[in-house]
Design goal:
The protein has 308 residues and is an alpha/beta fold. The chain has one domain (33-305): Phosphatidylinositol (PI) phosphodiesterase (TIM Barrel). Helix content is 27%, strand content 18%. The strands form two sheets. Strands 1, 2, 3, 4, 5, 6, 7, 8, 9 and 12 form a ten-stranded mixed β-sheet that branches. A two-stranded antiparallel ribbon has the order 10-11. A hairpin with a 2-residue loop joins β2 (80-88) and β3 (91-96). The chain is globular. Bound molecules: 2-acetamido-2-deoxy-beta-D-glucopyranose (NAG) (5 copies). One 2-acetamido-2-deoxy-beta-D-glucopyranose binds at residues 43-45, 282-283, 285. Keywords: Signal. Residues 1-19 form the signal peptide. Pfam families: PI-PLC_X (PF26146). One of its GO terms (biological process) is lipid metabolic process.
Length: 308
């Protein structure tokens, strides 16, 4: 009786030791689809919300570029949140002033806290932030404290090198398993200031098409890119939101009435196809929409990812 018991103990100990080396949990569903777990981050198309903070259900709120709030955007499948920052009275806030009216989206810290709450409830989701920094807010002085206070720094991914070429990124499954499923890009400042390693210089790794297009065919060109990597080694972002030029005044506003067409599958796929020759025949990595709850953005992205 003794010998089997001690054999069992040895086997049990061996299993425990082995177990300690095996990751406790492997994600089997990543961003809603099993097929995406083994797909590198650089080989996935993500749906994005342009001016994600600027939401209002009021159709008369002309400065609003979204109709539903952050958690609703995330619930409907948005996995890149874009937002423009400004410094107001020494506080970092999200707002935009590029259009006729100012839209005040509150503090960056409150925004990140809201998103962190959603991420805690949705552990198998990889999310990308694309923030703009036109006032040159200090990375260590203003951005990092907002991330820290929101709790989201526990989830951020810091790549082994900057810039990362499109083929260098880990899979969604690895990002989720490692608990590093939030990728943070800033348009300006992170190229020269690397003091906050998880805040990544956007244009060294992503090129963008022109923005604020008033042409519904979205002619494609490499509008902004930077850094030592070739365009082919960058990911790409389609600014797929249509503006109207109010009374030919040069004042551009987003127009919700065209959103069902602009955000429909044919328009999004045509834009992707138009950009393919500039993107080594790959699909775009990010598709930014206004009024992301209108139309069929999620279906278009699923189709591009081949995961319907
Ligand atoms: C977003 O809107 C939904 C529906 O109106 C609401 O239940 C939810 O509390 C809102 N979320 C936030 C963070 O305000
Ligand atoms: C996951 O974490 C391990 C241990 O820290 C590290 O060796 C590995 O490179 C990480 N993988 C990714 C995809 O970041
Ligand atoms: C980029 O696009 C904007 C408008 O979307 C335009 O004003 C600007 O001239 C473009 N820049 C380049 C380099 O193409
Ligand atoms: C992912 O890889 C497939 C197969 O090579 C390709 O067709 C697709 O365009 C790629 N998607 C992205 C976003 O790179
Ligand atoms: C596509 O979007 C339009 C406009 O929002 C909507 O009426 C339609 O139901 C959507 N189609 C599908 C299949 O979801």
């Amino acid at each position: 009786m003794r010998a089997p018991a001690s054999t069992l103990t040895v086997l049990l100990a061996a299993a425990l030791v082995r177990g300690a080396r095996i990751p406790q949990r492997r994600a089997t569903i990543c961003n809603g689809h099993a097929e995406l777990c083994d797909r590198p981050y650089g080989n996935v198309t993500f749906l994005g919300a342009h001016d994600s903070f600027a939401f209002s259900s009021d159709p008369l709120a002309l400065a609003a570029d979204q109709r539903v709030n952050l958690t609703q955007q995330l619930d409907l499948g948005v996995r890149m949140l874009q937002a423009q920052s400004h410094i107001f009275e020494n506080e970092l806030k999200f707002c935009h002033t590029s259009k006729i009216l100012l839209f005040d989206g509150g503090t960056v810290q409150d925004y990140l806290t809201t998103v962190n709450g959603w991420l805690e409830e949705n552990p198998n989701e990889v999310l990308t932030f694309l923030f703009t920094n036109p006032d040159g807010a200090s990375l260590s002085g203003m951005w990092e404290p907002a991330f820290q206070a929101s709790g989201i720094t526990d989830l951020v991914y810091t790549p082994p090198q900057v810039p990362m070429a499109i083929g260098d990124w880990p899979t969604l499954g690895d990002l989720i398993d490692n608990g590093t499923r939030v990728i943070v890009f800033l348009d300006a400042g992170a190229d020269t200031d690397r003091s906050v390693p998880f805040i990544l210089p956007e244009f060294e790794m992503i090129w963008e098409t022109p923005f604020d297009s008033t042409d519904p065919t979205f002619p494609c060109s490499v509008n902004r890119t930077a850094g030592p990597l070739s365009t082919a080694d960058h990911m790409s972002l389609n600014n797929h939101f249509l503006d109207i030029n109010v009374l030919n005044s040069g004042i551009l506003i987003s127009d919700p009435t065209d959103a069902p067409t602009t955000n429909g599958v044919p328009s999004i796929l045509a834009n992707a196809a138009g950009c393919a020759p500039l993107a080594s025949n790959r699909n775009p990595n990010f598709i930014l929409l206004d009024f992301a709850n209108i139309g069929n953005g999620t279906q278009a992205v699923d189709q591009l990812n081949g995961v319907q």
